[in-house]
Structure formats: structure tokens, C-alpha cells
Model the fold of this input.
Amino acid sequence: MASTIAACSSGSMPCAIAIVRLSGPEAFSVLDGIFKPKSGLPVSQRKARAMHYGRLLAKDGATVDLCLAACFPAPNSYTGEDLAEVYCHGSQAVVAAMLDHCFALGAVPAPPGEFTKRAFLSGRLDLTEAEAVADLIHSQSELGAKAAVAQLEGSVGSRVKAVREKVLALLAHFYAVCDYTDEEIDPFEYENAVSVLEEARNTLDTLHEGFQRGRLVRDGVPVAIIGKPNAGKSSLFNALAGSQRAIVTDEAGTTRDVLEQVISVNGAPIRMLDTAGLRESDSKAERMGVERARMAAMTAHAVICVLDLSGPLTQEDREALELIPLCEQPVLVLNKNDLCARLPDWAAEVTAMHPWKQVFHLSAQSGQVEPLAQWLSTLAPKPQEVLITSARQARLLQSASDAMSSAVDSARDGMTADAFLLDAERAVNLLGEITGETASADLAHEIFGRFCVGK
Ligand SMILES: Nc1nc2c(ncn2[C@@H]2O[C@H](COP(=O)(O)OP(=O)(O)OP(=O)(O)O)[C@@H](O)[C@H]2O)c(=O)[nH]1
Ligand SMILES: [Mg+2]
Done:
């Protein structure tokens, strides 16, 4: 029999309200033991899915809070089991006393992801939807949240299921024709089968193409800031992040390592990388930092090259500029425009030097970086399409597409249907793993182990 689990599902305390959840066969009896409604009747005997006010008791019977509780009977609950929730004041002491009482009455602490795992096992969510829950919790921008919600609503699962069902129907038809030769079953049409498999493969490929973009939405579009020491890279990083995350000083060589922060720029997830100023150095740490800066520049999706308008164009600036042809989507930031009334002559030369995507004159110190932020937000993928964010799903989509392709190729080479349909069957099993229809217990364990406790 399944155990009854308990955990705090809300965030760090102290806070206004904390939510403790109980799920499993004894959820209601445990709730009735720890919570006494003002009305006298136990919550489990009152209206379901409604809030009831009462006293929360510690193990020794002392009242630890006055708060609300609700029951969600199976199967219409998040987990599909009997589920109870207590909404108490967000105090660590209150929550600890409540959980202690729950455990004394037979509940056990919920392992990470156990509530969602139970939702999956009871068929409330498929695996793509469960993975979307984790993505949604960790989303760092509006766009990331939108993509996760679309997946939670079945955008990936329903498409994969539709492809799988079509190919399954084809297989079922073929085996029916083979097994029941006397029955009146429509003949198996070879050409039609090939076109169904081809269409399935194309749909899978389209979904798989959304993976790179899905990753950018989930993890942020990487954008590196490069330039010589003291150009104002960290000041720009802070202005974009809206916080003093990076150390800024007038000492050249302040930043040594690559600093990374995902920021939501007008709802778009951008992973900003602040880097060490590019220069020759005797310091081992600084030389390593410069190497990392070059690496970041060459792998980022876009690069912001910062030059300091308050001085001449130096050899170090030229070395930074030499990197630009190796970078994707370079933009030029002419910084410290508060220190120069007129653009220096070199500014025009540098502007003409490369096909910059954009050129901005600004003062990072003033924090006025809106036009640059506006441009950065255009780097994120468009929210309309179906985006795959899970490497697991992408790998399975790729393998299923490969299997589908080899079925199509074998058919085109004139192989018999029973031979090429074996590959189609393999693809169907792989697709089942995406949604969890044919997933193993180990896989489910691994996926849900990555969740947080209480989810
Ligand atoms: N007046 C003015 N000063 C600025 C501006 N941006 C940065 N600074 C100053 O320039 C100095 C260097 O700024 P940082 O942001 O640390 O420069 P950096 O490019 O990160 O330098 P390293 O980490 O050493 O490579 C600091 O004293 C900043 O206050 C600006 O727009 N105007
Ligand atoms: Mg710096």
C-alpha cells in the first residue's frame, strides 16, 4: 500500500503563508488529527475543496496556529490520491511542529518530486507535463514560463501521442490483416504505410528542431560582454541586471572570471556573461580569465564589445576588435558618453570596421541602457512555436525519427512490410518513453529525483 507523505510545499520562511501538503490513503485521518476546525466537524467530513478555519495542534496537543485547511479527495487532486493542504502562517516553528505531528500519526517525509511522481503514476500528468512542472518552477523569465505552461497544457505530449497513435494504428492494421486472413479487413496498402511513416518522421523532426530554441528559452540566450580592462563591462552588466552583482572599481583587471546571470529583459531570458578585461598579464589567474573571456565571446549567441569613449583607442581595444569576426551577432557599445561632449575620431573608424548588428552610445554608470536592452530582448525565440526543453525528450525524438527513417528507407528498398514495420515499432516504443506510456520505474525515479521536496 502507498505511504502517506507530508512536506512543506511553499518557499523559504519566514513568510506570510506556508502550505503543507499530505497525500496518500491516510492523508485525511492525519489531517483530522492535527487540525481541529472551529465548527467541530473534522475537515474530511465537510465540503471538499473548500477552506475550513481552525486550530493547528502540535504533537502534545498545544495549539500552534490558527489557520485554514482543505481536503481534495481522490481522484480529483494533484496526485490523484486523497490530498490535504494546510495553509498556516509561514513560520519555521509552526511548520516543524505540524510536520512532527503528521509523522507521529504515521505520515512519512516526502522525497523530492514525490507529489508529482504520484500524479504521473496515477495518470494525472504524462512525463512531458511533469517535466514542464519542473521547468515552470525554475523558469527565470516570462517567456520561459510561457513555454513551460504550454508544455504543461500538453503541447509536446499531445503531438507525440498523436504521432504514436497513428503509427500504432498502422501496425495494428497490418497485424490484423496477417492474423485474420478470413475476416473482411481492408487490405494493407504499402504506399499508404510509407507515407504515414514519412509524415510521422517529419513531425518528429519539426519538434526536435525546437530543442535548440527551447534550451535558449529555458537557460537564457548567452550574451558575452567583452573589452579591455576598465571599459565599463561590469558596470554595463550591473545596469542590465538591475543589481550590483559584479564588482566595479577603477582598477584595471577587476573581473577575473566569467560572471553569469540570467536576466529577464522585457520578459526575454538573456544569460549575460561579464568577462575579464582583455590584456596581456603576468598574473596566472588573470591570463586564465582572459582565456575564458575569449572562449565566452566565441561561443555566445551575441557579443557586446565595450569601448571607452573617454580615452584614445588603444592596442588592447584593437585586440578585442580582432575577436569580432569570430563572434556571432556583435554589437558595439561606446561607453562613458557622459565623459565626452563630442565623439572622438576613432569612433567612426571602429563603427565602419565591422558589420555591427547595432551601435549604442551610452553611459553604463548612469544605468540608462534601455535601447540595448530592447535589442537584447529580440534575441530570444518567438513564443508561438512548440519548444522542447528537455534533453531526454530531444534524444528520444531523434532516435524515434531515425527509426522511422530507416523504416521508410527499407520500404523504399522493397523490403516486406513485416520487416520495415519492426523499425516503426521501435519508434513507437521510443515515443512512449517521451510521454511515459512505456517508461521504466528507474526513469521515473530519475526524473522526479530532480524536483524539490514538496512538489
Ligand atoms: N563616467 C563613467 N564612468 C564609468 C562608466 N562605466 C564605467 N565607469 C567607471 O569605469 C571604471 C571601470 O568600470 P568597470 O565596470 O569595473 O570596468 P570593467 O570593464 O568591468 O573592468 P575590468 O573588470 O577591470 O575589466 C569604474 O570606475 C566605473 O565606475 C560610465 O558610463 N561613465
Ligand atoms: Mg569587470
